[in-house]
Design a protein that fits this description.
The structure holds two protein chains of two kinds. Chain A is of the alpha/beta class. In chain A, 41% of the residues lie in helices and 13% in strands. Classes of the chains: A alpha/beta, B alpha+beta.
């Protein structure tokens, strides 16, 4: 199986971290500073001390939702965890998504907003333990520096323990976060009870994305109505977007829910060339055709027809010179590689999907391959401890739908936009090593 | 008796297949040998007349990956 995996994917994880990241502006990004004295000047002291429990009502009015991808209302999470005793709060900055750089960028440029939000959330639920979970590198260093500064000035009431997140796609999944904080491998776990009820060492646990915490720090200072000045009535506020692909200035920008996709891409200098499609929501997201960019908006409602959602704000522009099928196959191969290797349907189904898509992309013309991929999506969906198989299925189905013309083109002759990957193993190229049947069942690997 | 569903711990399931043999009304085998809910759901509802069979299937699972539980 490994022969079919794209050799580029091994280096892929490093891309966002090594590229210079441009940072835009907005209510959140403009309030961000790495220096505590400057943070105090710009944003004032810690608000709401001793009354943080009231924040739950304020958050309900503000309508702040999680910025980690799922978009769950924060006040509900706080309310359900806050009923219990000896709770645990974790700020989650594990950013395994290759297309996303906003969480580490925020920690580098504005760690104090995140840490203020973490303190407030911890006070609101009366937390006994507080953690910051972050991948090794400049973001972790920035957070540690900021924590030391705050400790020296007595800014924080609750001590924060930094836990290093491994550099894997699934390390930020809620149950994997809990496992890592418990000192075990950061792998998703089978759950029959929610983490909010039973998380770290059996304690009710709040796992909250760090950008969400930063918004909380500003809402606590400026109020819910200030927050609602941007965004839509259903999805208020701004969010951080990581814009990448065929744009002149990839980076982290701030936008409002409801912004049109073309306006969002304009922040990064607009597309360099006509865009074939835009991947919204990252590698677990879905494609929006290039022709729709002036209609589609960054809101749940507007993106629903495409099977997409704003997710964690990742938007990647696929240039007109690239093949959507090839790109979908490449991402699927990457996601297959990033399976935690625990659940049989994911271990077997994801590589099989990647293999069939790669064959199609590289010129294998058997039409039954398409039906096989579709069958694999139903065999994989909903059959894992975490949502990694489901996210992969979302991307694959979207690729087959949005690039159906390209799929037809590949089946009839060959793709006109791109050469088969020169780096791919020779036996996978068109015309060679074709078995008579659709790729059959793979061996078990769980 | 309250309605129950069949929960599979996929991190444990090794595809031994005993549940598929003991509960063919609810489970099929996927191409790799893992149990596949016939109704396509995440956690198939167990009809009352099959509860005893489902319990037996859970008990016979060599890696204890099967559980009966209240719907989420």
């Amino acid at each position: 199986m490994t022969a079919t995996l794209n050799p580029r994917s091994a280096n892929e994880r490093r891309e966002p971290a090594t590229q210079p990241v441009r940072v835009g502006s907005g209510p959140l990004l403009s309030a961000a500073t790495a220096d505590l004295a400057e943070h105090h000047r710009r944003n004032g002291p810690m608000p709401w001390q001793d009354a943080a429990v009231r924040l739950i009502g304020v958050l309900e009015t503000a309508g702040l939702t999680g910025r980690g991808g799922a978009g769950f209302p924060m006040w509900r999470k706080l309310a359900s965890v806050g009923m219990a005793e000896r709770t645990v709060v974790i700020g989650n900055a594990a950013e395994g998504e290759p297309g996303s750089a906003k969480d580490r960028t925020l920690l580098i440029h504005g760690p104090h907003l995140v840490l203020d939000g973490l303190q407030l959330a911890a006070e609101a639920v009366g937390a006994a333990e507080v953690y910051l979970y972050v991948g090794a590198g400049p973001a972790e260093q920035s957070a540690r520096r900021a924590l030391a500064e705050r400790a020296a000035t007595g800014w924080d009431r609750l001590p924060v323990t930094v836990v290093t997140a491994p550099d894997t796609f699934v390390s930020g999944e809620e149950s994997a976060v809990v496992a890592a904080v418990e000192g075990r491998a950061a792998l998703p776990r089978d759950r029959t009870v929610r983490v909010a009820e039973r998380g770290v060492r059996g304690r009710p646990t709040l796992v909250q994305n760090v950008e969400t915490l930063a918004h909380l720090a500003l809402i606590a200072r400026h109020g819910p109505h200030w927050f609602r000045q941007r965004g839509t009535a259903e999805e208020p506020g701004t969010f951080l977007a990581t814009l990448g692909g065929a744009v002149p200035a990839p980076g982290v920008y701030e936008a409002a829910y409801g912004d049109r996709l073309d306006a969002l891409l304009a922040q990064a200098g607009g597309p360099r060339e006509p865009v074939r499609a835009v991947l919204v929501g990252g590698y677990h997201g879905a494609w929006v055709p290039g022709a729709e960019l002036s209609r589609a908006r960054m809101s749940r409602e507007s993106l629903r027809p495409y099977g997409a959602s704003p997710g964690a704000g990742v938007v990647i522009a696929l240039p007109g010179s690239a093949c959507g099928l090839t790109e979908t196959a490449r991402i699927t191969s990457y996601l297959a590689e990033q399976s935690a290797g625990q659940c049989g349907p994911c271990v077997n189904g994801l590589p099989a999907m990647a293999d069939a898509l790669t064959r199609l992309a590289q010129g294998d013309r058997r039409p039954e391959l398409v039906a096989w991929v579709e069958r694999l999506t139903t065999l994989t969906e909903g059959r894992g401890a975490c949502r990694h198989p489901d996210g992969t299925v979302r991307l694959v189905r979207s690729g087959l739908r949005v690039f159906s013309d390209e799929v037809r083109l590949h089946l009839s002759s060959r793709c006109t936009v791109i050469r088969p990957n020169e780096n791919a193993p020779a036996q996978n190229r068109a015309g060679q090593n074709r078995s008579a049947q659709v790729p059959p069942e793979q061996g078990r690997g769980a | 008796m309250a309605e129950q569903v069949l929960h599979i711990d996929w991190t444990r399931c090794a595809g031994r297949g005993s549940c598929v043999e003991l509960l063919p009304e609810l489970l099929d085998r996927d191409p790799w040998g893992y149990p596949l809910a016939r109704d396509g759901s995440r956690e198939p509802v167990i009809p009352e007349h099959l509860v005893a069979h489902a319990r037996r299937a859970a008990g016979y699972c060599p890696v204890l990956a099967l559980k009966l539980r209240a719907p989420a």
